[in-house]
Structures are given as structure tokens and as C-alpha cells.
Amino acid sequence: MPFSKLPSNVIEYIALYLDPKDIVAFGLCSRSQYESILVNENFWKRLVDGKRVNGKHNVDSLGSKSIQDFGDLFRLYDIFVKSTGLELSNDLSKKFEKEPGNWREYYIAKTESINEADNDILLDQGNKEYKDARKSLTTLQDDMNYSVLVHVASKMLWILDILPGHAGCYYILGFILFIMNQLEDALDILDMGRLVDSSFEPFDGKRWIEWVGLSLDANRHVELEKEILSIMQDDKQDINDLPLLVNENLSPELLRVLFEIFDRFDEDRDECLNPQELDLFVFSTNGQHPPTSFIENMGQRFGANDQGWLTKKGFLAFYLEQTLDDPSETKKDIRAHGYDCTKLQKLTATA
């Protein structure tokens, strides 16, 4: 099938993995490619999946080229400033307060700027600033110093402007929101950091490897997300919150959610997740494609069909074991798939 006959969403998906010059050449190959890419502002701008789910990113689907490569710095700035009330520098507000009028021009200019920079020097400088920021924040929970917060936050945003893949900056900004008790927004920013670099230690999804007995660093980082979710659970618990477990079994409400998630990825409706389906599920949950050994071990440990594919029963067995051991992990997983982790309901999608 020629490219010109492909659906526009497939054309956009292919273009996401191309460099700017190749995108232009690809977009000029046919009228459909030209309309799907070169004159399509949504391709350059649109948030991941084309929408926000209750204000949060959904990592399941197609994203914009600018945000995929550079992160959504405009939304990051907006969340941080509105949530904290901190007044950052005028230079930052001029740069990030208003979105570009032309996202294609923004993307091309941004790419050229980054390509012309000395990345090694910038990376060394960025890592130094990140380490200094971590040191500065260690005492802030006991003695809140807003001038330090402004200084650190400004540094992190400037680093992201020139090193958009530095996930540590998102982590620092999320931590600032955490110590200011802006927990939902802190989770939002951590989600954004995971989209930029899922291999960054607090975002790397090592729990998935741990479950199937693969090698794991015993001194792995304790995720900030886990602490935030635990605090939110303690603070927001009320009589209307639905339990994850009933008598050490998955609650009916959680079972319903897990059935819906499983069915979403069981594309061939055979009651199993084949290697491709399981890979997509894990990637959609924590932003990483698992190794082949993980795919095999999941089925072996929790239940597989004759072909070694994880069954629906095995999928539920995994979540029962995980929820018994650490409910916050299950909450994070279902949240990643667009569910309210206390009401166990699908979050409303808004444009």
C-alpha cells in the first residue's frame, strides 16, 4: 500500500520518528501526507493522545512532534506557576507564558538551536545545576525559603529549555510541588517527566522487573510518587472511597477496572496477552518496552496458555499479588490508564 493511501493517523505516527528535514521531504510526497503533516498544526502541537484526561497525560497513543521531542514546557510552566503562586523571572514568563503562534516554526527553530549548542558542555552544566538543586532542597521541608524555591525552579526551567530530555528537572519541580503540598500537580509533573525520559531512575518502572524475578538493584530509589499517593490516600480517605481488596481478594470494583484495561489490550479477543499486546500494555503503564525475558516470565509466573502468553487469569493474579504487597503500585497503574484510583472509575476525557 502506498503511503498516500494510509490513514492520516498512521502517516502522523510515522512522521513522529523522523528528523525535521526528513519530515519535510516525507510531507511533500503526496497531498495526503502534506495535509497530515506540513500544514497540520495539531501534528506539531497536540498533547499526547490529542487530549488531556482530567488534566493529565494519557500515554497510550499518538502525540505531537514538539512535545514528544521537547516536552510540554508551556504546560509545565503553567501548572507550576498556578499551583505554587511563585513569581519566576520575567524572562521565563516571556518565554513560556504564551504558546507559540506557529508550532511548526517553533519546532524547527528549537531543533536548530539545540543542534547548534555544545551538548557535552550543556549536559555537564545541567547535571551540576541538578545536583546543586537537590542539595538546596534537602532542608526546605523544615525551613521553607521561597527565594530558594524560586531560584531552583527557575534553574530547572532554564535547563529544560536547552536540555529538554533532562528528566531530573521534572523530578525537582515535582518535589517542590510536593513540599508545598500541591500533590495532584506534583504527580502531573512527574508524569510529564516520565514521558520525556522513562529511564530516569524514579521513572524506570523497575517494579515490573522485580515481579518476575529479574536482576534488580537492592538500593533502588524509593519513588516520590509512592509517597505522594500514600499521603493522598491518608488525607482523602472517606466513606465513599472504594477498596482495592476485600478479604485479601481483588474487590469487585477493581476487578471491573482490570477487566476493562485487559480487554483494551487484548486486541484479538483470545483472553490472553500475546507478546506484542503485553509489550504495549507495559509501555502504556510505565513508559518502557519490557525485555523478552519479562514477557516470558510473566506468563510462567502468573499463568499462561499453551503458547506461553499471559492469560486474563494470570493478569489478575499479578495484580492480586501486587496489590497485597503494595496497593500504591496498583493505584499508579490504573491511574496511568485513566482511572480515578480512589473511586475506581474512568476519568472524564476533556478536549
Give Rg in angstroms: 21 Å
Distance between the termini: 33 Å
Low-confidence stretches: 46-63, 205-222
The structural class is mainly alpha
Number of helices: 19
Spatial order of the strands forming the largest sheet = 1-8
Mean pLDDT: 77
Strand content: under 5%
Helix content: 55-70%
What count of domains describes the coordinates? 3
Q: Care to count the β-strands?
A: 8
Order of helices and strands: HHHHEHHHHHHHHHHEEHEHHEHHEEE
Bulk shape: globular
Biggest β-sheet: count, sense, barrel? 2 strands, antiparallel
Offer a concise description of the structure:
The protein has 351 residues and is mainly alpha-helical. It is built from 19 helices and 8 strands. The protein has a two-stranded antiparallel sheet with strand order 1-8. The protein has a two-stranded antiparallel sheet with strand order 2-3.
